[in-house]
Amino acid sequence: MQYKDNWEETKEKFTNYWHQKNTGRPLMRIIARKPEIEGLSDGKPHEGSNAEVFCQGLYYDLPEELKWKDMEDKYMDAARVVARYRDFCEKHLFLAEAFPNLETCWGPGSVAAYLGSEIGFKEDTVWFEPCLEDWDEYPELKFDPENKWFKKHLEFMKNVREIVGDDFHLDMPDLMENIDVLSSLRGAQELMMDTIEDPDMIKERVDQVTRAYFEFYDRFYDLIKDTEGGNSYSCFQIWAPGRLAKLQCDASAMISADFFREFVLDSLKTQTEKLDYVLYHLDGPGAIKHLDALMEIEGINALQWTPGDSGPDGTCPDWDGIYDKVIGAGKSLWIKVYSGEFEDWIRNMDRIVQKYGSHSVFFFLPEMSFEQAKTLIDYAEKNWSDIPGTFRK
Questions:
Q1: From CA 298, how far away is CA 132, in angstroms rounded?
Q2: Which of 112, 192, 193, 195 is most buried by its number of CB atoms within 10 A?
Q3: What is the pLDDT of residues 154-203, one digit of tens each?
Q4: How many angstroms separate the CA atoms of 253 and 155, rounded?
Q5: Count of CB atoms within 10 A of residue 254's CB?
Q6: 3-class SS at 368?
Q7: Is 27 helix (H, G, I), strand (E, B) or coil?
Q8: What is the rounded CA–CA span in Å between residue 49 and residue 65?
């Protein structure tokens, strides 16, 4: 792997993290600007998406000829997508457990496109057009190797793989599952009414999505897996030494705890049985009511909590009630850090480590300067190594 000096050590730490057995300091995703480009930054973390950084060269002087010109260029031109990311890699350092991995995602929830939806591309978002007006007239939701979006996405990834070789990882696309996919196909409001008017039919459609999911997953996995059978996953900057996926159900914010158990839980359990490692993405206050049910799923190894678009980051003490249940269930934490200044990050992370220990925590941090990265890693090595944590189940 290019651009990464401690990949063997990183793989070992990830492997232990999934089993709550990490040693030394917690895992940290630290990407640092090389000193020679520091003058292009104001020293503040970038608040937008990674895609804006990678594609348009924010803070690192991407050559003008590589900046995307249209949506085809931004998302689907394999050679130019790779060239933009390689330029980023050459101007940054992947430290601690950060590693070079190229997002090949065409929006969160691409299974909906493979099952009939149209994809809408914009500069800062991707969405899926509802296409289902009448369930009785819509065919079974199943794998179709001739679906235009699936063929196009798979071909794009094959081209990227051919160009990249083993220089860095290609991420598993953010496929998504269960009623989130149905919501994209049908529309959220219409789907909620369907769960009331014809629950048995919706359960069958969820089962169809679950069966189709692995037809898509397996084909992408065979393309992106490394020599050890491991893979990385889009957006979350994680790797595991086996079949890895992020699972979720954003629509769960709109349904009761009973409905979640009725329509979603079995599907998630089935998915975890066919995967080796699972990170669950718990999105928004409305989803917290399902945490107890999720913690019953043995195959979930770690949980990532997203408080909302404008809320405090994952280190806020308000979220300890969630983390208590996760650590108490013998699972790991994925925590995004961004609130306050650099000194606040260290102080807030310190609180998390001292309470929950260093064995089961991954911190995702904003891009930073090389000097900040050195300071953080040095502090973590000296103060956060093999901390058992004060929290007790």
A1: 34
A2: 112
A3: 999 999 999 999 999 999 999 999 999 999 999 999 999 999 999 999 99
A4: 35
A5: 16
A6: strand
A7: strand
A8: 21
Main-chain phi, psi angles of 33, to 5 degrees? -70, 135
**In the prediction, which pLDDT does 43 show?**
62
Domain ranges of the chain: 7-383
pLDDT given at position 96: 98
User: What's the CA gap between 260 and 300, in Å, rounded?
Assistant: 16
Compute the CA torsion angle 83, 88, 92, 95 (nearest 10 deg).
Answer: -80
Residue 237 · residue 174 · CB < 8 Å: no
- CA dist., res. 195 & res. 199, Å (int): 5
The pLDDT confidence band at residue 53, using thresholds 50, 70 and 90, is very low
Which token pair is 166? Answer: 């083993």
Fold classification of 7-383 is TIM Barrel (3.20.20)
Percent pLDDT > 70 in the chain is 94
Give the Cα separation of 37 and 41 in Å (integer): 8
Average pLDDT over residues 47-73: 68
DSSP 59: T
Which among 196, 159, 11, 141 is positioned nearest to 83, based on CA atoms?
159
For 132, the 3-state DSSP assignment is: coil
Strands (E), 113-259: 118-121, 126-129, 169-172, 231-233, 238-240, 244-248
Token pair recorded at residue 89: 């890699």
Residue 207, beta-bridge partner list: none
Instruction: Determine the residue type at 260.
Output: F
Q: What is the pLDDT of residues 85-131, one digit of tens each?
A: 999 999 999 999 999 999 999 999 999 999 999 999 988 789 999 99
Structure tokens at 17: 């993290």
> How many Cα neighbours within 13 Å face the side chain of 225?
15
What does the pLDDT average to over 342-363?
A: 98
Beta bridge partners of 245: 278
Torsions phi, psi of 95, nearest 5? -110, 165
pLDDT beyond 80 at 45: no
Which are the contacts of 177, defined by CB distance < 8 A and separation ≥ 6? 111, 209, 210, 213, 247, 248, 249, 267, 268, 271
